[in-house]
Amino acid sequence: MVAAGYFQTYSVVGVLVAVGVLFVAVAFGAGRLLRPVVPTHEKHLTYECGVDPVGEGWAHTQVRYYVYAFLYVIFAVDSIFLFPWATVFAGPQFGAATLVEMFIFLGFLAVGLLYAYKKGVLTWT
Protein backbone atom coordinates (compact mmCIF):
# COMPACT_ATOMS: atom_id res chain seq x y z
CA MET A 1 0.00 0.00 0.00
CA VAL A 2 1.40 3.36 -1.00
CA ALA A 3 1.25 6.11 1.58
CA ALA A 4 -1.10 9.00 0.82
CA GLY A 5 1.69 11.53 1.42
CA TYR A 6 3.68 10.07 -1.45
CA PHE A 7 1.30 11.37 -4.10
CA GLN A 8 0.89 14.73 -2.37
CA THR A 9 4.52 15.51 -3.16
CA TYR A 10 3.74 15.00 -6.85
CA SER A 11 0.76 17.33 -6.57
CA VAL A 12 3.14 20.12 -5.52
CA VAL A 13 5.24 19.46 -8.62
CA GLY A 14 2.10 19.44 -10.76
CA VAL A 15 0.93 22.76 -9.33
CA LEU A 16 4.35 24.32 -9.96
CA VAL A 17 4.37 23.08 -13.57
CA ALA A 18 0.84 24.46 -14.09
CA VAL A 19 1.84 27.84 -12.61
CA GLY A 20 4.92 27.92 -14.85
CA VAL A 21 2.92 27.14 -17.99
CA LEU A 22 0.29 29.69 -17.02
CA PHE A 23 2.97 32.34 -16.43
CA VAL A 24 4.50 31.76 -19.85
CA ALA A 25 1.08 31.75 -21.55
CA VAL A 26 0.10 35.04 -19.86
CA ALA A 27 3.43 36.65 -20.80
CA PHE A 28 3.11 35.63 -24.46
CA GLY A 29 -0.55 36.66 -24.56
CA ALA A 30 0.20 40.07 -23.04
CA GLY A 31 3.04 40.59 -25.50
CA ARG A 32 0.78 39.73 -28.41
CA LEU A 33 -1.97 42.09 -27.22
CA LEU A 34 0.27 45.04 -26.31
CA ARG A 35 2.74 45.11 -29.19
CA PRO A 36 2.17 47.43 -32.11
CA VAL A 37 1.44 45.66 -35.38
CA VAL A 38 2.51 47.86 -38.26
CA PRO A 39 4.01 45.66 -40.99
CA THR A 40 6.23 47.48 -43.46
CA HIS A 41 8.57 46.33 -46.21
CA GLU A 42 11.62 47.16 -44.10
CA LYS A 43 10.40 45.01 -41.23
CA HIS A 44 10.21 41.97 -43.49
CA LEU A 45 13.83 42.30 -44.66
CA THR A 46 16.57 40.20 -43.16
CA TYR A 47 18.42 42.15 -40.48
CA GLU A 48 22.13 41.57 -40.22
CA CYS A 49 24.20 43.96 -38.12
CA GLY A 50 22.38 47.02 -39.40
CA VAL A 51 23.49 46.45 -42.98
CA ASP A 52 20.99 45.87 -45.75
CA PRO A 53 21.31 42.37 -47.19
CA VAL A 54 23.05 42.03 -50.53
CA GLY A 55 22.62 39.04 -52.80
CA GLU A 56 21.03 35.75 -51.87
CA GLY A 57 20.56 34.48 -48.36
CA TRP A 58 22.65 31.36 -48.96
CA ALA A 59 26.37 31.45 -48.33
CA HIS A 60 29.03 28.78 -48.36
CA THR A 61 30.76 28.21 -45.06
CA GLN A 62 33.77 26.11 -44.24
CA VAL A 63 32.88 22.89 -42.46
CA ARG A 64 36.18 22.91 -40.62
CA TYR A 65 35.00 25.76 -38.40
CA TYR A 66 32.17 23.58 -37.17
CA VAL A 67 34.64 20.78 -36.52
CA TYR A 68 36.79 23.14 -34.42
CA ALA A 69 33.73 24.24 -32.48
CA PHE A 70 32.67 20.62 -31.98
CA LEU A 71 36.11 19.62 -30.74
CA TYR A 72 36.15 22.61 -28.39
CA VAL A 73 32.79 21.69 -26.90
CA ILE A 74 33.84 18.07 -26.41
CA PHE A 75 37.07 18.92 -24.66
CA ALA A 76 35.57 21.78 -22.64
CA VAL A 77 32.85 19.52 -21.27
CA ASP A 78 35.35 16.80 -20.58
CA SER A 79 37.73 19.14 -18.79
CA ILE A 80 34.85 20.36 -16.65
CA PHE A 81 34.18 16.71 -15.80
CA LEU A 82 37.72 16.43 -14.42
CA PHE A 83 37.16 18.94 -11.60
CA PRO A 84 34.44 17.00 -9.74
CA TRP A 85 36.41 13.83 -10.29
CA ALA A 86 39.43 15.43 -8.61
CA THR A 87 37.36 16.33 -5.55
CA VAL A 88 35.81 12.86 -5.35
CA PHE A 89 39.20 11.21 -5.79
CA ALA A 90 40.40 12.91 -2.62
CA GLY A 91 37.76 11.06 -0.57
CA PRO A 92 38.93 8.19 1.62
CA GLN A 93 36.52 5.58 0.20
CA PHE A 94 37.66 6.11 -3.41
CA GLY A 95 41.00 4.95 -4.64
CA ALA A 96 42.38 2.78 -7.38
CA ALA A 97 39.00 2.13 -9.03
CA THR A 98 38.38 5.86 -9.46
CA LEU A 99 41.86 6.35 -10.85
CA VAL A 100 41.42 3.52 -13.37
CA GLU A 101 38.03 4.90 -14.47
CA MET A 102 39.53 8.31 -15.10
CA PHE A 103 42.41 6.88 -17.12
CA ILE A 104 39.88 4.97 -19.24
CA PHE A 105 37.97 8.22 -19.75
CA LEU A 106 41.15 10.08 -20.68
CA GLY A 107 42.05 7.22 -23.02
CA PHE A 108 38.81 7.73 -24.93
CA LEU A 109 39.64 11.43 -25.19
CA ALA A 110 43.13 10.64 -26.43
CA VAL A 111 41.74 8.29 -29.10
CA GLY A 112 39.36 11.04 -30.26
CA LEU A 113 42.16 13.57 -30.38
CA LEU A 114 44.41 11.14 -32.25
CA TYR A 115 41.62 10.46 -34.75
CA ALA A 116 41.14 14.20 -35.34
CA TYR A 117 44.90 14.61 -35.78
CA LYS A 118 45.12 11.72 -38.27
CA LYS A 119 42.23 13.14 -40.30
CA GLY A 120 44.08 16.48 -40.54
CA VAL A 121 41.42 18.40 -38.64
CA LEU A 122 43.94 20.02 -36.30
CA THR A 123 46.04 21.58 -39.06
CA TRP A 124 45.23 25.18 -39.85
CA THR A 125 45.59 25.74 -43.59
TrEMBL record:
<dbReference type="Pfam" id="PF00507">
    <property type="entry name" value="Oxidored_q4"/>
</dbReference>
<dbReference type="GO" id="GO:0005886">
    <property type="term" value="C:plasma membrane"/>
</dbReference>
<comment type="similarity">
    <text>Belongs to the complex I subunit 3 family.</text>
</comment>
<feature type="transmembrane region" description="Helical">
    <location>
        <begin position="12"/>
        <end position="34"/>
    </location>
</feature>
<keyword id="KW-0812">Transmembrane</keyword>
<dbReference type="GO" id="GO:0048038">
    <property type="term" value="F:quinone binding"/>
</dbReference>
<keyword id="KW-0874">Quinone</keyword>
<feature type="transmembrane region" description="Helical">
    <location>
        <begin position="94"/>
        <end position="117"/>
    </location>
</feature>
<dbReference type="GO" id="GO:0008137">
    <property type="term" value="F:NADH dehydrogenase (ubiquinone) activity"/>
</dbReference>
<dbReference type="InterPro" id="IPR000440">
    <property type="entry name" value="NADH_UbQ/plastoQ_OxRdtase_su3"/>
</dbReference>
<comment type="function">
    <text>NDH-1 shuttles electrons from NADH, via FMN and iron-sulfur (Fe-S) centers, to quinones in the respiratory chain.</text>
</comment>
<feature type="transmembrane region" description="Helical">
    <location>
        <begin position="65"/>
        <end position="88"/>
    </location>
</feature>
<keyword id="KW-1133">Transmembrane helix</keyword>
<keyword id="KW-0520">NAD</keyword>
<dbReference type="InterPro" id="IPR038430">
    <property type="entry name" value="NDAH_ubi_oxred_su3_sf"/>
</dbReference>
<dbReference type="GO" id="GO:0030964">
    <property type="term" value="C:NADH dehydrogenase complex"/>
</dbReference>
<protein>
    <recommendedName>
        <fullName>NADH-quinone oxidoreductase subunit</fullName>
        <ecNumber>7.1.1.-</ecNumber>
    </recommendedName>
</protein>
<keyword id="KW-0813">Transport</keyword>
<keyword id="KW-0472">Membrane</keyword>
